[in-house]
What does this fold into?
Amino acid sequence: MENAGGGQANLVSDPPEPSARPAAWLLLAALLGGNIALALGPWFVRMADTGPVAAGFWRLFLALPFVLLLARVNGQRLTGMGPKTLGLVALGAVTFALDLASWHIGIGLTRLGNATLFGNAGSIVLLFWGFIAARMLPKGLEWLAIVFALAGAVILMGRSLEISNATLIGDLFCLAAGLLYAVYLLTLQGARGAFGSWSLLAWVSVFGCPVLLGIALALGEPVWPTNWTPVIGLFIVSQLIGQGLMVYSLKYFPPLVVGLALLTQPAVASLYGWLAFGEVLSAMDIIGMVLVGAALAVSRARA
It folds into this structure.
């Protein structure tokens, strides 16, 4: 998604089990560590000598055996889906694959801070969807989140356009990824109660890998890496460590805390974007990021 897009990650949390609650510092470290690990994903995508969509394929494919093992270890069943549920999971997997493809393409075209923020925009999309589904207007902080999101997006995209048309196109790819991720979460909503996070991710990977591979081949991307370090780093850091820590910690925190912790992702991405790729942020960029970040935090709090 990561974001968990996202940042893009598959952050579907399981309900907490009746057991002793871990220490608060350990949970906070897991939440922040998971966000930092997910924020490093775009760096590995940039460094991979495959195409960006092909990197997404390797991210899911290489992690699949470990995801299956984690599902088993956590007692999550992998079988027993009815045809309707399996069809919805397959549809969700295709949406997730398109989300990952769109986000990875955008990462190569825009600044890393923008890519991480817009890739996590699914929370804001879900806030909008809630109003449509309930047939009601926003109120209070919800209006503020919408205004902040729109204002921040206009600022960041305007700054991208000042750099080049390609950078703006990258923003739009990442924004599309955030929209696709919201659709993915809505599609799998019914299956979350019966199947755990790792079990669902295993099935999503099974259905999503061929889609990502097909897109990469259709785009003429190099698929087989000559340097395996970036794609191995991508699946270990983003898919296993990032996903694992987030799945472990999410069930212990209220949505507002999760939303605030989410803001570490664009901060980390912007930092190494500056250090490794010379991506300098202006005062207006920072204002735009703060506005979108505030909207993300509010939208999570209203989840």
About this structure: The CA atoms of residues 106 and 172 lie 7 Å apart. The first helix runs from residue 24 to 39. The mean pLDDT is 85. The chain has one domain: 23-301.
